[in-house]
């Protein structure tokens, strides 16, 4: 299957993408991983992206599209893939369509993870990270440490990242509404969108998504 995963920041796209890709035996292709891999390997696209990033500028769509198209052409993606973070806007969605048509392929579904905006803010703004080890993550409401402000694992100080503040989260949501949400209507016109309620346990959301995909293939 060839799937695009969309949803606001804090919807759990990365977590769901990993589980779904494993269950479907297809590669999880995320924009973040594409950038890291191309930059670390020093590919022409990676060097171009780094030059923009070092200058504090946005990486042009053409670079992101080039990385995605290269990755979709790998052998492990021959039978399908799950795209996470791409396409991010209408221009990228149209380029993806052109790529797929050029290779006689098509998308099977666009999974839209639906989360109320207040819940998104609560999820992200409540996140607390350990200063000693950033892999130790807690939450002010959903995963409280035994001692407030102290990591249960290593005793490090827990803090809120600047980009997790409520104001920053609401700004990120505004960018999502302006740039990314229009692709949902674009794909609805192609009858590809399946809305998945993303509240509840991670396993429950995964089960909903898998059930929806199974229904599509029947």
From TrEMBL:
One of its GO terms (biological process) is AMP salvage. The keyword DNA repair does not apply. It is found in: Cytoplasm. It is an enzyme of class 2 (transferase). One of its GO terms (cellular component) is cytoplasm. Residues 127-163 form the Adenylate kinase active site lid domain. AMP binds at residues 31, 36, 57-59, 85-88, 92, 161, 172. Transmembrane segments: none annotated. Its EC number is 2.7.4.3. InterPro entries: Adenyl_kin_sub (IPR006259), Adenylat/UMP-CMP_kin (IPR000850), Adenylat_kinase_CS (IPR033690), Adenylate_kinase_lid-dom (IPR007862), ADK_active_lid_dom_sf (IPR036193), P-loop_NTPase (IPR027417). Residues 30-59 are annotated as: NMP. The keyword Nucleotide-binding applies. Pathway: Purine metabolism; AMP biosynthesis via salvage pathway; AMP from ADP: step 1/1. Keywords: ATP-binding, Cytoplasm, Kinase, Nucleotide biosynthesis, Nucleotide-binding, Transferase. ATP binds at residues 10-15, 127, 137-138, 200. Pfam families: ADK, ADK_lid. It catalyses: AMP + ATP = 2 ADP. GO terms for molecular function: AMP kinase activity; ATP binding. Monomer. HAMAP family: Adenylate_kinase_Adk. Belongs to the adenylate kinase family. NCBIfam families: adk (TIGR01351), PRK00279.1-2 (NF001380), PRK00279.1-3 (NF001381), PRK14527.1 (NF011100). Consists of three domains, a large central CORE domain and two small peripheral domains, NMPbind and LID, which undergo movements during catalysis. The LID domain closes over the site of phosphoryl transfer upon ATP binding. Assembling and dissambling the active center during each catalytic cycle provides an effective means to prevent ATP hydrolysis. Catalyzes the reversible transfer of the terminal phosphate group between ATP and AMP. Plays an important role in cellular energy homeostasis and in adenine nucleotide metabolism. This is Adenylate kinase. It comes from Streptomyces gilvosporeus. The gene is adk.
